[in-house]
């Protein structure tokens, strides 16, 4: 019998990957390509959506070639994508209109501040279960419509289309299918998270024409059949990258949580069929929806800067030559020397949501070496995780027992140990490191019967590493107090 596979398209912030998985959920082959980052102004971040699509066209066949497989051996395609990044394109030509505005971009800061005071803002927050913030797609879309003369009128006629990255890729893969899934739609501020459809009131509040929006579908279920890159293969799933990681970590039960450590870090806790509204600065979001079933929801703590702080340490300060070197450098000292780095480069996300905050380094003395700075860089990721876990425990009424982790930073043993220490719970990394891609593959395979059910997916999960807490409680709380004082120094840096 010929082996069959599932392919995941993992469209991330810095690169796009196509990964071939087998029935055991094991990675068979991978093809990856970075794309250019555009920074036209301070706080602005853009991508070329056409470049990203061209990369997918090249990477798909390359991943199959490396697997020694043919297109007829592919059972389904699943897509995981950077969320909130906003793409506009011309319906007739399929060409992007300007660059995509990336989730990290803060250009809508002034506009969001103005909208917060307008009638209807509270209704938007209630329907979307999100705070008004620069993070989400809706304000970006409003900004783009306002800044391009004639664009709104064309959008009202349905000549200009909006989508996040999965919508853009499905459009190109299928030759014109304009759809999104509930996880990505729930990050726009335009979706009613109870009806799981676009909210007419929220569209009116932001001034968004309904004609430019995609159809909202369940995350897991056949979207359509590809005519490009993977001709004849069904697209079985689309999930925002962090929801895909939750699915890939098989966190299917309420109370199960994972944290993905990448450019930023994102901790999601499955809350089941209940939407838990946060009172501690977290996001309530759709975790996933299997076609024909109710949606599952999650609490999410979004941390803007973790892995990208290591990149900054490497590229801007030039204190290391490669990202893995930061662990070696940090191990040259036994502690941070009293130095703390709070990386509020584009404001603070969960649990603060302070867009005016900016990064600080505090506790500098002549004693501090680059080893102390390296340790402070790593510790910043751990303390930010602690803040989110504390908020999650308070919102959910549950005490986190174990944290499942994934992403590139989990290769740093010093960081993982420090996270276990500051959380005072075991930290566990699975054998399958590519959990974002795996979640997309799992969803696609589930949709077409490649995998029979969720329990079958659970059996694929295996532990690769575990870190147990060793820090003394008194030191933990002292250090946490120092961190919180450092965070307070970032507030109100940008004056309105």
From TrEMBL:
Annotated catalysed reactions: glycerol + ATP = sn-glycerol 3-phosphate + ADP + H(+)
The record's function comment reads:
Key enzyme in the regulation of glycerol uptake and metabolism. Catalyzes the phosphorylation of glycerol to yield sn-glycerol 3-phosphate.
Q: Which residues does the UniProt record annotate as the domain Carbohydrate kinase FGGY C-terminal?
A: 257-447
Q: Which InterPro entries does this chain map to?
A: ATPase_NBD, Carb_kinase_FGGY, Carb_kinase_FGGY_CS, FGGY_C, FGGY_N, Glycerol_kin
- Organism, by scientific name, is Paractinoplanes ovalisporus
Q: Name one GO molecular function term.
A: glycerol kinase activity
Q: For binding ADP, which residues are annotated in this chain's numbering?
A: 13, 17, 263, 307, 408
Question: What Enzyme Commission number does this protein have?
Answer: 2.7.1.30
Domain Carbohydrate kinase FGGY N-terminal stretches: 5-248
Protein name, as recorded? Glycerol kinase
Q: How is its activity regulated?
A: Inhibited by fructose 1,6-bisphosphate (FBP).
Question: Which pathway does the UniProt entry assign to this protein?
Answer: Polyol metabolism; glycerol degradation via glycerol kinase pathway; sn-glycerol 3-phosphate from glycerol: step 1/1
| Positions with a binding annotation for ATP | 13-15, 263, 307, 311, 408
Q: Which UniProt keywords apply?
A: ATP-binding, Glycerol metabolism, Kinase, Nucleotide-binding, Transferase
Q: Which residues bind glycerol?
A: 83-84, 135, 241-242
Q: What class of enzyme is it?
A: transferase
- Looking at the Swiss-Prot or TrEMBL record, what is one Pfam family this protein matches? FGGY_C
Database matches in Gene3D superfamilies? 3.30.420.40
- Is Metal-binding found in the keyword set? no
Which residues of the sequence carry a binding annotation for sn-glycerol 3-phosphate?
Answer: 13, 83-84, 135, 241
